[in-house]
């Protein structure tokens, strides 16, 4: 078995640590020390040690030139590396762990895989500590990594789950100072009660329970981490510098698109007034267009760094014990999530929530509902996007082609949606579906992913796919990246529910919304070209209506069968 995929994990992990720790190094050293490959080592650093580390990094590149990313950072910032004890410790620990694991003799492939899984776990835990220490945008990155189970080893994704809602907290003293600076009032002047312990902490903010002094209403108070005002500009500058440096030395690993997206999205997420507008808009949209049991807390008032909203509590959607104890059907939760997020993607003028990880969604029991006995609560509306109409329609046609395993149309609409070439198509198809392309070609999209398929996709990153994936993500429209991110997160939510029905129903729901979108497009064309009296328009209407009705019937029959099986105890 080739070791190169595993070595890529080693190099990527080490470089990840190096990149994240640069922020603390910026405090001690000037930018000119960091930015140039040919900068001299400071006189007080042992030249022999410097030479040894530089040689090790260069040797890594020469032995495995396709491995990546932050070897460049390691070379560019060798000087900085020597100044930071945490960085040296992490780098040494990660490197030793992987090298010892890869070089040790094992009696069988199973024993080797077990050793590698243990190594993944240890290295993921080290990386978690670095992410938590650096906070801010790095925790955002870890949150997304936690949902990428179709690409990353399970040991990494599960280790990063605490980043979704158990991040480091800011002190109540710093929160008090921020209240005075932003509102001109102390906390006790606005709230008759304010719990100093947050009920949840995320990458950019934490939430406290309070009681409004004026009305006596119990509220959730979302407060931004005060330190972000100091760190975010530096984090963004560091990200831009890091990726531009990577592009300089490794043009094939162009990640500047990622820093550009962060430059655009992070300021929006840090303005809670925009989040309040997004929450109100999403709430109004779903009240008018959907009967899903979705609850979005009402906003009382908002300032740039403080958001006061209705207090509504629930449990994480992957709290299976809570769901089972309260007789909440996991399959119905899965289907409801599918309805909500497909409505956001395919609905006309629908706002798209682009950060639906497990910490931003909650479930509560609600026996008063007619069709369901639960509510889905949606939090954190800081990152929203609107999908242009033409893109939404082409994206719907792409998914219908995927479901039907219609490869010619899959290629056609991949090109229209994201400018994908025929050579890039298999990788893009896997990226949007989270499935091995061979499964898509055989019309197996609605089957559950096996362990073998997951391992195959993870291993493929080490066989040249990583570079192709980076290039692909660099060229697609930014809105497609956010749609892919939303797909990743909702797919992860669904898999964590461990439903009995598998993914068949969720794909039928997706097909319903995609078909509805295509039907609406055909109706617009009919109205624009003379109405139903035109003979070709009538035929177009019949074709569109038949396709829509076919999917509706499939879903209705399938849901009826599921209901019968459930009542008969067959599920």
Structural class estimated from helices and strands: alpha+beta
What about the largest sheet?
6 strands, antiparallel
What is the total tally of β strands?
11
- Chain-averaged pLDDT: 77
Number of helices: 25
In one word, what is the shape? globular
Instruction: Bin the helical content.
Output: 55-70%
In whole angstroms, the N-to-C terminal distance is 40 Å
Gyration radius, rounded: 25 Å
- Low confidence ranges: 1-14, 20-84
Strand content: 5-15%
Pfam family, one: ABC1
InterPro entries: ABC1_dom, ADCK1_dom, Kinase-like_dom_sf, Mito_struct-func_regulator
Family: Belongs to the protein kinase superfamily. ADCK protein kinase family.
GO cellular component, one term: mitochondrial inner membrane
Q: Top keywords for this entry?
A:
disordered N terminus, 571 residues, 11 strands, three-stranded mixed sheet
Sum this structure up briefly.
The protein is α+β, with helices and mostly antiparallel strands. 62% of the residues lie in helices and 8% in strands.
Structure commentary:
With 571 residues, the chain is an alpha+beta fold. The chain has 25 helices and eleven strands. Helix 1 packs parallel to helix 4, helix 4 crosses helix 12 and helix 17 crosses helix 24.
Annotate the secondary structure layout.
Blueprint: H1 4-28, H2 31-35, H3 47-63, H4 69-76, H5 78-81, H6 85-103, H7 109-134, H8 136-145, H9 154-159, H10 172-183, H11 187-190, E1 191-194, E2 200-201, E3 205-212, E4 218-224, H12 228-249, H13 256-269, H14 272-289, E5 294-295, E6 299-302, E7 306-310, H15 320-325, H16 330-346, E8 351-353, E9 361-365, E10 374-378, E11 384-386, H17 389-403, H18 407-418, H19 425-433, H20 437-441, H21 451-460, H22 465-475, H23 478-496, H24 504-528, H25 535-567
Parallel strand pairs: 5-10
Antiparallel strand pairs: 1-3, 2-3, 3-4, 4-7, 6-7, 8-11, 9-10
Helix pairs in contact: 1-4, 1-6, 1-7, 4-12, 6-7, 7-8, 12-13, 16-23, 16-24, 17-18, 17-24, 24-25
């Amino acid at each position: 078995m080739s070791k190169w995929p595993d070595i890529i994990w080693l190099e990527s992990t080490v470089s990840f640590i190096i990149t994240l720790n640069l922020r603390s190094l910026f405090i001690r050293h000037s930018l000119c020390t960091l930015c140039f490959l040919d900068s001299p080592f400071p006189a007080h650093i042992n030249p022999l040690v410097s030479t040894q580390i530089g040689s090790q990094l260069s040797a890594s590149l020469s032995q495995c030139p396709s491995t990546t990313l932050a070897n460049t950072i390691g070379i560019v910032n060798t000087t900085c590396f020597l100044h930071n004890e945490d960085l040296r410790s992490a780098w040494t620990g990660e490197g030793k762990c992987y090298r010892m694991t890869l070089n040790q003799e094992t009696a069988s492939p199973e024993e080797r895989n077990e050793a590698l899984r243990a190594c993944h776990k240890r290295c993921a835990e080290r990386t978690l500590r670095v992410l938590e220490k650096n906070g801010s945008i790095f925790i955002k990155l870890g949150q997304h990594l936690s949902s990428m189970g179709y690409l990353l080893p399970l040991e990494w994704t599960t280790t990063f789950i605490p980043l979704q809602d158990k991040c480091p907290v800011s002190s109540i003293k710093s929160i008090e100072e921020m209240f005075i600076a932003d509102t001109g009032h102390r906390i006790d002047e606005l709230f008759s009660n304010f719990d100093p312990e947050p009920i949840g902490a995320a990458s950019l903010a934490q939430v406290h329970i309070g009681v409004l002094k004026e009305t006596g209403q119990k509220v959730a108070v979302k407060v931004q981490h005060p330190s972000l005002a100091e760190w975010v500009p530096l984090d963004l500058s560091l990200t831009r510098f890091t990726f531009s440096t990577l592009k300089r030395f490794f043009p094939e690993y162009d990640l500047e698109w990622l820093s550009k997206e962060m430059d655009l999205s992070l300021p929006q997420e840090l303005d809670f007034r925009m989040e309040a507008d997004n929450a109100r808009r999403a709430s109004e949209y779903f009240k008018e267009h959907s009967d899903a049991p979705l609850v979005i807390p009402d906003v009382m008032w908002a300032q740039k760094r403080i958001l006061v909203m209705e207090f509504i509590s629930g449990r994480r959607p992957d709290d299976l014990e809570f769901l089972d104890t309260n007789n909440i059907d996991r399959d119905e939760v899965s289907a409801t999530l599918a309805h909500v997020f497909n409505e956001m993607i395919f609905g006309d003028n629908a706002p798209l929530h682009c950060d639906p990880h497990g910490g931003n969604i909650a479930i509560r029991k609600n026996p008063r509902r007619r069709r369901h006995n639960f509510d889905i609560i949606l939090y954190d509306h800081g990152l929203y996007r609107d999908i242009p109409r033409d893109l939404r329609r082409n994206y719907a046609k792409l998914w219908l082609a995927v479901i039907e395993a219609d490869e010619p149309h899959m290629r056609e609409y991949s090109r229209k949606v994201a400018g994908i070439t025929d050579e890039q198509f298999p990788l893009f198809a896997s990226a949007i579906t989270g499935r091995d392309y061979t499964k898509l070609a055989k019309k197996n999209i609605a089957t559950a992913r096996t362990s073998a398929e997951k391992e195959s996709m993870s291993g493929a990153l080490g066989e040249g796919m990583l570079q192709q994936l980076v290039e692909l993500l660099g060229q697609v429209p930014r809105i497609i990246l956010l749609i892919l991110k939303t797909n990743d997160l909702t797919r992860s939510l669904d898999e964590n529910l461990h439903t009995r029905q598998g993914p068949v129903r969720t794909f039928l729901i997706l097909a319903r919304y995609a078909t509805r979108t295509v039907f609406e497009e055909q109706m617009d064309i009919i109205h624009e070209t003379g109405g139903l009296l035109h003979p070709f328009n009538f035929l177009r209407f019949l074709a569109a209506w038949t396709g829509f009705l076919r999917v509706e019937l499939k879903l209705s029959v399938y849901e009826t069968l599921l209901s019968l099986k459930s009542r008969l105890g067959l599920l």
